[in-house]
Amino acid sequence: MNIPLNIDWQQILLHLFNFAVLTAGLYLLLYKPVKEFMEKRISYYKQIDEEAKEKLEQAKKLEADYREQIAKADAEISQNKAKAALEAERAADEQIKTAKKQAEKMLVDAQEGAKKEREKILAQTQQDIAKLAAVAAEKLVMQSIDQTYDQFLNTARGGEVHEEQG
């Protein structure tokens, strides 16, 4: 069956059949595995992307948590500093009060000690004055006795002398 223009339909159909078999073989051998490989690759990269997004979200949450913890720690540190400052101020005030009390006590003790020392010195001075007065009185008495004795002796000798001369 020859057709005008020298076209052989049987050859055309055979080539179409060969082309269909080649297309089916290539589809099964290349296209399907390549498509599956590409789909696996796409799903792998999607999975990696999703994991990366999840990790990024977790990292952002952790960062927010850390920032919050840091803010809390800063606030706590500030409170502790304020408490420590107040306690230090109270302790300093207490020490100042204690020092003032000790100074007052030392001053009172010193005044009392000075007063006792003064009284002791006055008593000693009075004793010394009394001793000096006694010594002075004794000297005066002794001098007076000596003078009286001398007068007595002179008087007694003078009478003897007058008797012997007479």
Secondary structure elements and their pairing?
Blueprint: H1 9-165
Descriptive notes:
The termini are far apart. The chain is built from one helix and no strands.
Question: How many DSSP-defined strands?
Answer: 0
Structural Rg: 68 Å
Order of helices and strands: H
Report the sheet with the most strands, covering strand number, pairing sense and barrel closure.
none
Helix content: over 70%
pLDDT average, as an integer?
88
Query: How would you describe the shape?
Result: rod-shaped
> How many helix segments?
1
Q: What would you call the structural class?
A: mainly alpha
Low-confidence stretches: none
Strand coverage percent: under 5%
CA(first)-CA(last) distance: 230 Å
Can I get a quick summary?
With about 170 residues, the chain is an all-alpha fold. It has one helix at about 10-165.
Keywords:
166 residues; mainly alpha; 95% helix
